[in-house]
């Protein structure tokens, strides 16, 4: 079996084997391992229209040509003997996307903790620290966002080794990126003296003198000229015990809420679903504000590792290879008299002539044209889409589901056409609709159809009709993806007209 449902049992058995293998390790070996904690809760609105709330940038293959997504690249970066299996903290709406992307990358997570509501990074990391401390109180946690680019992974690993020495001595270490320009879009860290503790010092690690908010251009230039400042990467390394101790001192309400949320958690397939009400009671704050700017245990490792947080389309233009005219292109793009631009064509061809310094992103339902120097303002457009109640801020025309995906092809007043892909071994819920009927035509693969009391197979070029109000289910019993055209007709065609009677993915009975 492929996909999420068939893979659930495989992952559960993997988790069990990982636990048993840890039992067989010596305690000091477990303590010396670094536990990656990957945070995947952002929406990446500045990379709209490719990044959307329902499928944000960490799930996209934005950098490189091998199809690796940002999430997969982050998890692959921390594979090896020095690293334990990664623990992920994610938005519960994205849980099946994350599990499937890790499966495709052949990466076995130790746990996937679901956030029922966004409370920023500090409470999310508290959940991870509490979870790890159940088995390894002194576990070293390497906290990383899921959507950063690091071009020099050797430098990254060397910096992690330096940071680990200080973290074992009680430091909360952040990684400061050596600035290459007077960037105004990042916070800065001013380094102090070399790190020292009662246990000794750590080569290449410095105490933090202060954290600075995003500066204006003149101030950023002063920081660059001084050589004492670094960009704040948002990557951290510390022990679970140290983080929880500091959180108890400065944010006791946050720690109490996270503890209650985890104590009330339930296992849902391969996911840890924390208590929603308890977690919602937590204050919302970042690691920087809640902990790092308050504690005297903050330390920084300066590093040059080709880092970018991909905070805007202009960041992708900066890190990708340019042509002779300074352009970066993806997809079917035709250029004439065009310079210093980033152009992404997802489906149809994009042609330009006589333009400079533009960002052009063309998807099948939206086109963005922006001045490259004002790429940060794309977020303003997304807020306008939200305020106008438009769906383009949230979902693509291709919508991912735990069983596969569907793509909208045509939408009329009383009809809708979708192309549905069901992964091998997967099936949709047993369901019915009050307001629409459906006609299914198999384009490729084999479909196992339940319609009322009947169950039958459909093969390529065969079709069936699902009457309004009839209980039905679609399943792929084969070894290749099932491609199917669905024609819906009725007075209401919204996705919330679904009543689920049985579901293999832990979703609610009614959509």
Q: Uncertain runs with pLDDT below 50, 5 residues or more? A: 4-25
Shape: globular
Number of strands: 30
CATH homology superfamily of the largest domain: Spore Coat Polysaccharide Biosynthesis Protein SpsA, Chain A
Radius of gyration: 25 Å
CATH class value of the largest domain: Alpha Beta
Fold blueprint:
Layout: H1 3-24, H2 27-32, E1 34-40, H3 70-76, E2 87-91, H4 95-104, E3 111-115, H5 121-133, E4 140-145, E5 149-150, H6 153-168, E6 172-177, E7 188-197, E8 200-212, H7 217-226, E9 229-239, H8 240-250, H9 252-263, E10 266-268, E11 271-273, H10 276-280, H11 287-292, E12 298-303, E13 307-308, H12 313-319, E14 328-330, E15 333-339, E16 342-345, E17 350-356, E18 358-362, E19 367-371, H13 378-387, E20 398-401, E21 404-411, E22 415-422, E23 430-432, E24 436-444, E25 447-451, E26 454-458, E27 463-466, E28 472-475, E29 482-490, E30 499-502
Parallel strand pairs: 1-2, 1-4, 2-3, 3-11, 6-12, 14-16, 15-17, 16-18
Antiparallel strand pairs: 4-9, 5-13, 6-9, 7-8, 7-9, 8-12, 10-11, 18-19, 20-21, 21-22, 22-29, 23-30, 24-27, 24-29, 25-26, 25-28
